[in-house]
Known about the structure:
CATH superfamily of the largest domain: MM3350-like
Radius of gyration: 30 Å
Shape: globular
Strand content: 25-35%
Number of domains: 2
Amino acid sequence: MAFLKFRVYWEEDDAIYRDVVVKHTQNFTELNNIILKAFEFDQKHDATFFRSNDIWKRGREISKAVYEKEYVAPPLLMEETTIGSEIIDTNQHFIYLYDFVKSWTFLIELIQVIKNADADMTLEYPIVSRIEGVGPMQYGTKGLLGKTFADIEEKYDLSEAKDGFGEEGEEGDHDKEEDDDKEDDDSAEDSDSNAEGGEFFEGEAF
């Protein structure tokens, strides 16, 4: 048995990648799952792999299911296809497409074949062995933070505070003009307030 180490790049930024290690006898469903885990994506959407070459040309598909679309050749199914059976050379490439609506695309390159004797047999494969760069957020910031962000937003009512800030600023400008007109009339009262420590409440909003 051999272990295959793949480097999985996010198509839009090759500085962002994950290394994953799988057994050559494992299937593409397991490769699919470990890639999604590595990039912290869920498993709710459709997905497919393509055989590829050095210039990332898409070949035959290894798909999660047979979808209603045109195929050049009938797709292989992930759960029925072992990863080792699709390794033609030591620099094998695949393209992975997840969520056909958003078209998350990852480029996969075989970077190492590890002999059984050199593998850590105490680990449960497949595994993520390296993480580089901050990965894309599948659903945006709020989706990434999930319930934690929602709780903070509810506790502090962030959306209402944002709207209130603008209104307060407008009222403040209006009040400032009225205060300027009354400045001379209130000078005597200000003197009395200052004597009693009232300077801390000048312009109070109560």
